[in-house]
Amino acid sequence: MTKTSIEQFANDVDGYLTTAQKERVLVMRNGQPVALVIGMENKDAEDFHYMTSPEFWRVIEETRRMPTVPLEQLKKELLGDEDPANSEDN
């Protein structure tokens, strides 16, 4: 993360916006953070919505806590008695 003062940011807005495409830029006033600049290049409105949505991240966290099924078990369940190593998809 790059940190800069408001004055430095104002003197090189384009440079800091370019930097923000690769890493976050924290803008400081009197040593205190006042803004965080996050690059949006190669992102769209939907990406931004999900990046900032507490509901989306709550669902992600809930999903991560759910039990998982090992891949080999899933293949066995889907393919029945077939040997997963001999399936055409491998």
Describe the protein.
Helices cover 47% and strands 17% of the residues. The chain has 90 residues and is an alpha+beta fold. It has a single domain, classed as YefM-like fold (3-Layer(aba) Sandwich), CATH 3.40.1620. Strands 1-2-3 form a three-stranded mixed sheet.
DSSP helical segment count? 5
What is the ordering of alpha helices and beta strands?
EHHEEHHH
Count the beta strands.
Answer: 3
User: What is the rounded Rg?
Assistant: 23 Å
* CATH topology annotation: YefM-like fold
CATH architecture: 3-Layer(aba) Sandwich
Shape: elongated
* Beta strand %: 15-25%
* Average pLDDT, all residues: 90
**How far apart, in Å, are the first and last alpha carbons?**
42 Å
* Strand adjacency order, main sheet: 1-2-3
Largest sheet: 3 strands, mixed
Keywords:
elongated, 90 residues, alpha+beta, 3-stranded mixed beta sheet, YefM-like fold
